[in-house]
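Here is the promised in-class demo. Please do not try to memorize the tokens; focus on the logic of going from shape to residues.
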């Protein structure tokens, strides 16, 4: 993007504010964000919210490493039980919603541990719910494998949803501009 996209304006705040707002409005117990040590502006903005920020000593080389830092932190700090679950989503999803997160939480059955992801219009989206008893599988992935490999390897179910925010992430300036235009159009109605 050429600039810190999570700090770009979005609605009445920034992209990261919208994302963290959805998590905090949902039924999750704790929100943990992994942020690079050299990204002090993002750390500061995250701490405006009631979240925990994990700052790895070594910068993560990819998203999987960021997730592993967060999982290790959760394991040490909270010692989750097998009935607990981990929800993952990229931080560049400003249209993520609390109802979407809650739909996945409601579908989670600790007696039938499986990955859960929303499906909107035939497409798999985020967040990804991982039962805690399966979270260790992230660390068993090969160096060149992303977390999406778990969706093929482990039991998984898709949860039908009409929450289009499950599919919206912002990776390019053009996507950002398009989503901002969509926001302007939605607010005019």
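The designed amino acids, position by position:
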């Amino acid at each position: 993007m050429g600039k810190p996209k999570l700090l770009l304006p979005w609605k009445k705040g920034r992209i990261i504010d919208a994302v963290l707002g959805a998590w905090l409005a949902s039924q999750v117990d704790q929100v943990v964000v992994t942020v690079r040590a050299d990204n002090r502006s993002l750390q500061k903005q995250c701490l405006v919210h009631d979240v925990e920020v994990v700052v790895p000593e070594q910068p993560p080389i990819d998203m999987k490493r960021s997730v592993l830092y967060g999982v290790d932190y959760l394991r040490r700090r909270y010692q989750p039980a097998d009935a607990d679950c981990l929800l993952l989503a990229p931080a560049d999803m400003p249209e993520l919603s609390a109802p979407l997160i809650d739909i996945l939480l409601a579908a989670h059955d600790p007696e039938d541990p499986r990955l859960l992801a929303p499906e909107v219009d035939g497409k798999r989206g985020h967040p990804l719910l991982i039962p805690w008893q399966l979270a260790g599988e992230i660390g068993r992935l090969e160096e060149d494998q992303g977390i999406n490999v778990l969706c093929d390897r482990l039991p998984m179910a898709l949860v039908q949803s009409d929450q289009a925010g499950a599919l919206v992430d912002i990776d390019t300036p053009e996507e950002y501009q398009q989503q901002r235009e969509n926001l302007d159009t939605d607010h005019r109605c």
